Amino acid sequence: MTLPLFPLNTVLFPGCRLDLQIFEARYLDMIGRCMKQGAGFGVVSIIEGQEVGEAPQAFGKVGCEALIRDWQQLPNGLLGIRVEGGRRFHVLDTEVQADQLTLAEVRWLEECADQPLTEEHDDLAALLGALALHPMVAALEMGGEVTGQQALACQLAYLLPFEPEQKQVLLEMDEPSVRLARIQVLLEQLQGDRLA
């Protein structure tokens, strides 16, 4: 499967929403093609390089499919799109085109069967509910009540202020229960840092 990539300084997770402003020709063309074909593109986290200009030298080998859910012309004249994270993928090979758009050969990753939330997830579920009250989270129509471990893990990993490298590790985890356990550890580290 060949997928055009949009490398960003962020990590997108399945089921999570991201608003983007598109102004570079390579990405305007890519979005146009995706909308005509009803297809998505791949978001990968930049490790080395910039979002604008030449293609980044290095990015995460696991990314998330971005499905276009809405678009509008913004007051600043740029194209605004809202995407939602779809399937995770592993980058096998890449090719940078003349316009600096990166095309990737990808393999879709299998998702584990979702498990219902248990009592041990109560605190994390309450945290997601609290995050839903934040204006930026509310604007994305995210947070609030979820029923499964997958949605809880993905939304917390996406919304909480972890380092990009930590978010990338969370994205690469297959098991939602393992991802939730890691989020708990990272939260404890954040609280420890604040108290220090």
UniProtKB/TrEMBL annotation:
Record-given protein name: Lon N-terminal domain-containing protein
PROSITE patterns to which the protein is assigned, alphabetical: LON_N
Pfam families: LON_substr_bdg
Every Lon N-terminal domain range: 1-191
SUPFAM superfamilies: PUA domain-like
PANTHER family associated with the record: ATP-DEPENDENT PROTEASE LA (LON) DOMAIN PROTEIN
Organism of this sequence: Pseudomonas panipatensis
SMART domains found in the cross-reference section: LON
Cited Gene3D superfamilies: LON domain-like (2.30.130.40)
